[in-house]
Amino acid sequence: MSILPRISLKPEVTEHLNSVFLNKEVLAAVGHQEADCRFQKLLTCLSHPPSYTCVRASTHLAPLEEIRHKLGEELKKQQMGSSSAEDVSVQILLHPRITDVLLLPVDGPRPVEQLSSEVVVGAQCGSAVLRGAHVFAPGIVACPKYMKPGDVVSVFSDVEGRCTRGAMSFQGKKVFVGNGVAEMSRSSIFCTDEPARGVGVRMVEPLYRSPSFDGVLPSLAFLQNLPSVVVGHVLGPRPGERILDMCAAPGGKTCHIAALMKDQGEVVALDRIRNKIDRIRQNAQMLHLQSVKAFCFNSTQAVSSDSAQESEGPPFPPESFDRVLLDAPCSGLGQRPSMGMTWSLKEICSYPPLQRKLFHAAVRLLKKGGVLVYSTCTVTLAENEEQVAWALKTFPCLTLQPQEPHIGAEGMLGAGLSPEQLRLLQRFSPELSWDQTETTTPFPCRADGDTIGFFIAKFLKN
Length: 462
Prior knowledge:
eight-stranded mixed β-sheet; S-adenosyl-L-methionine; RNA methyltransferase activity; single chain; RCMT
């Protein structure tokens, strides 16, 4: 059901995406009316959260049913501690095809009445609230002059990022995300030498109700979007292999790969940013994974010129890895919920050249007979199907492979790929299953379709 305004984009970006989703191949296949309908649905569903919260269970540490039971008990305690809890039952569903996934239905949109006292938060914070988070103090950009702990307030998201930090009110474009209780005073948020930390507003009547996972079973239940979990299974890691995750932060997929290998072998994780490497190591330690080796390094330079060189860290000799995951930096236009993006068209179009540099390194580092998985969390052709077409032309040694599980749609028309090639690709296209009035779609079809926008291609190096 649609209740939030569609995603706010710069006009040039909207026009560009319109040309992508109404390209000649798509128009020839489905017609202008259906193509435009899908595009309008995309713009609307991107601002809304998916229908299910996905949790990856650490089945390398405990059986799935045990984790499901423990999670249910923890979330019941959380609900019982909430003053607005009407029902302490918690529904946790198993995915019929993915054996380490738990799914929790999202309750929303709910009828919540707006109050006169308003707190304004940044767009990123507002999106987190729509997925079950409380409001943390750094995300607050405006609040009433005399706000104190215990005040009941309405929370709004500043979708265009135009509210001045420290303001007492804001009349610009904002979107209501629910009501909460202030945990801090205005002065403790804005008038301190040190940046305020901790929960600033505890959400009690969110527009979309999802459990807060802050501190809940940190080693057993890992919040991760469903398509991101699918990537690890598609890669198909096996115990004893050496695997490279080229753009690994924050480490969710890295740790999943290690868990699927039963922590036997080596998973090398690379990222350019030092503090992100620390986060990967922290996640691996929290999940009791010893096989993860994380390095701060630019993956475009990860191939050593000395093929005889043997080292634990980068750069690596050619053909050093059994499998490579290239979860590439991308424009992120598939992320949900996202009520606004301020990027220019130039910024969005800057990613394909970097992705191709990374692709060159990935192919060189992969052993003959090895598997390369390429993925993004965006919806453009240039970063997805067009990259596949380019890769198949540039690297004759690569062939597309079937994916298991394949629960998303096939690839999108427009890049000149054959029907057989498109069927081997996996594109999570929420606009194909998301309907403003449809709430009776059976599980798990709704869970598999109403996800973030995501893309996966699997190659074999011959």
